[in-house]
């Protein structure tokens, strides 16, 4: 007989669904043998029950395996989600530059297709040729989506022949 999900979780001595409620909270995890770990619960592996704790004081991660967990206590609520990577001060300007480049590529490709008498319309950030073909960012020949191989090949060839200036 194959054990159900509840039986497997009882073997690990913890309820995986309950652990999900502890994510992003400051917790104390007691394991068998009396040792304890404290930190913000970053994530839980649903298969093994392994809990990943982030300790801000030591700036480190600790992995507590599900089979060893005896008890979990929430010490305090955290107001913010744990972010491993601090945003770069340059990320806003890089994103803005990328958006401008993408907009330029979109308008350039759209005008090229219209100049070659291909009926194209812009829907959001995609270019659509009827219901036959869609071109997604970054708007090069590899970004064409279609189930019609003949149309796909012809549009890709046209995009490849587009002047680079």
UniProtKB/TrEMBL annotation:
It comes from the Eukaryota. Pfam families: Gemin6, Gemin6_C. Residues 67-165 form the AD domain. Gene3D superfamilies: 2.30.30.100. PANTHER family: GEM-ASSOCIATED PROTEIN 6 (PTHR14710). This is Gem (Nuclear organelle) associated protein 6.
